[in-house]
Predict the 3D structure of the following.
Amino acid sequence: MKNTTTIDKRSLDRQAADWIRGAIVAGDLSPGARLTEIALAEQIGLSRSTVRSAMQRLAGEGLLVQHAYTGWEVVTLTPEDAWELYTLRCSLEGLAARLAAERIDDAGRAVLTAALNELKDSIAVMDRRRVALADLTVHRTIVTLAKHRRLSMQYGLVIEPVHLYILSTNSMTEPLEAIVPEHEELVDSILRGDVQTAERLASEHVSKHGLRLVELLRAQEANG
């Protein structure tokens, strides 16, 4: 008889990290929220040491901050954080778009088109969390299509903070449909193999939304 049991091959600390990461991205653990290993261990159903390892993993991803004597905290996006992320993304994604346009093949065109269609579908049902994930997937796909291992590695180091960043920038966009044309234009330039336009549009897209988020966060700081 065929065994239909699904075996989860992820380590326990990775499973715990995935659970906490998902809660942060979903908004169940809000920016600035204080966390304790004991409470999370009880909630997730794993040992405190396993949860501690998971939290250390997430600290390395930039999603959690550990404070001496006071415990853990979900990262809060500051104006400086937003500035660092968008300026870094401008460089990485501008280069990625240029290389993707230069090196894309038919299989890559299909994958990128599918990613864009998922973004459109998520916007059609007005699910902001799904939109943020689909938005991120478009950008990750472009980085992958660049076929540049070291570029992908560097992008992977900031992927989770970028996810939160996209959630924040999309929350400022009303209506959400407004982000479709700029993604369509970027994707179209890559599909056509227009390397210069692809690089320019990728950088402009990130700069536009990054500057808006920095200005918003500075205004929030000024207002206490």
Q: What stands out?
A: The first strand starts at residue 34 and ends at 35. The chain has ten helices and three strands.
